[in-house]
């Protein structure tokens, strides 16, 4: 990739481990470090990232009023280049929303519902998996320092596009046997992509999330993840914190809390430290 824009996707073939939370918090942490950050929500029409930044109502209104074209699903269409040529900069700008927390966002859209099937109709596998990469190369890279893509918790044509476009995966994991298996499956999937297409997708960060160090089991898994993924483990685990959940419900990250609890404060520090490590790993200088 001949680009200086750093890209990563949050992905694990498992629901609820913290993909959206990590995309949001790492994004804000990078913005706090002075970067221009774009988050892209490919994780489904429910619009979790937009909700996480309190802008989903705004998006929903546009959808209800029919003022929702172009949108994130449009950029995967064969006609996208023609649309973008015709509309110029306005085409890309109308996709992007500014949030209060210093990151920009391309929100989800109901069109994501049929995107997996639409992509499945493209015969050539490279073409099927590289539509998002083409879009980022052509229309996004000059605008941002880092792009983080939030992917669905399942392996399909949409998540493949995210992996292919970013070549770097952030895998949030909870401390349990199933997550451990899914992380192993992810590593073997990345190897398959490499063998089949000669495309190297790296496991950039295994990010232990919702860690409760008061339990032995959590400590054991934390240690095991550290050993199994010595090259990819995040420098700091994220503690389980009710504040993270509450803040998300209020449409913000823990960085926006005026009176963070102890665990929220620790979560902030963890995301800041992990964002710094991510910067280095995506730069290729670590
Ligand atoms: N460290 C944490 N402490 C407490 N709650 C958390 C933490 N991280 C995430 N959560 C909560 O857990 C739930 C799932 O997190 P999140 O939505 O980020 O997961 P996901 O992997 O994106 O899920 P999905 O597969 O449904 O997209 C959310 O309610 C979120 O607020
Ligand atoms: Mg999610």
UniProtKB/TrEMBL annotation:
A Pfam family reported for this protein in Swiss-Prot or TrEMBL: AAA_31
Coiled-coil ranges from the UniProt annotation: none
Domain AAA positions: 12-198
Highest taxon in the source lineage: Archaea
Name of the molecule in the record: Chromosome partitioning protein
UniProt source species: Natrinema hispanicum
């Amino acid at each position: 990739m001949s680009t200086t824009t750093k890209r990563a996707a949050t992905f694990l073939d498992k629901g609820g481990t913290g993909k959206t939370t990590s995309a949001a918090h790492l994004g804000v942490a990078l913005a706090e470090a002075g970067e221009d950050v774009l988050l892209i929500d490919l994780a489904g029409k429910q619009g979790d990232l937009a909700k996480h930044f309190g802008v989903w109502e705004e998006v929903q209104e546009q959808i209800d009023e029919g003022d929702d074209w172009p949108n994130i699903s449009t950029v995967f269409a064969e006609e996208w280049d023609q649309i973008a040529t015709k509309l110029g900069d306005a085409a890309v700008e109308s996709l992007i929303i500014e949030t209060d927390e210093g990151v920009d966002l391309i929100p989800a859209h109901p069109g994501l519902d049929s995107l997996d099937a639409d992509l499945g109709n493209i015969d050539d596998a490279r073409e099927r998996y590289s539509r998002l990469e083409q879009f980022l190369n052509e229309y996004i890279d000059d605008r941002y320092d880092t792009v983080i893509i939030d992917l669905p918790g399942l392996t399909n044509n949409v998540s493949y596009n995210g992996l292919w476009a970013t070549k770097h995966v952030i895998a949030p994991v909870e401390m349990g046997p199933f997550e451990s298996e899914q992380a192993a499956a992810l590593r073997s999937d990345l190897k398959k992509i490499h063998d089949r297409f000669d495309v190297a997708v790296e496991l950039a960060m295994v990010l232990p999330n919702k860690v409760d160090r008061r339990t032995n089991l959590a400590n054991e898994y934390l240690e095991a993840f550290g050993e199994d993924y010595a090259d990819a483990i995040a420098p700091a685990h994220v503690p389980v914190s009710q504040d993270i959940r509450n803040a998300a419900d209020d449409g913000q990250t823990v960085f926006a809390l005026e009176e963070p609890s102890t665990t929220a404060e620790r979560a902030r520090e963890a995301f800041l430290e992990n964002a710094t490590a991510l910067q280095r790993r995506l730069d290729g200088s670590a």
